[in-house]
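Researcher: Good morning. I'm working through a list of sequences from a screen, and I'd like to move beyond sequence-only analysis. For each chain I'm collecting a predicted structure so we can compare shapes side by side. This is the next one on the list. No need for commentary yet; just the structure.
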Amino acid sequence: MTPASHTESFTVHPTDCISTLDPTLPDLLGTYILVQWMEITAAKLINTILNTDDRLTVGEHVDIHHTGMARLGETVTVTATLVEQDKKHASFSIEARNDEKLIATAEHQRTIIPRKLLERMMR
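Model: Good morning. Structure tokens for this chain:
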């Protein structure tokens, strides 16, 4: 059986660049934004598998290796692959590419929780 995967594409906007935090830094995609995109992609994948009327996920852990760059205006494609799931957790392997060049990999875990419990906790 092929593991489930999901792909999203993102364009690097000025607010995604590390120069937003410090103008002396270059107009390159910030790692913190890349983590955000990876988490969004994994969450969308698990939401296609779970009954989201009853259960949702929250991010628990991200271990990222950001090894390449993406410039302002370029497109980054993020692919999350579900590698393991049980009743309380889902684990993902994630890749980010700029064109076909691999710019980052990550391992990501999400905690599966009942929707009603999360809603109570958020009050």
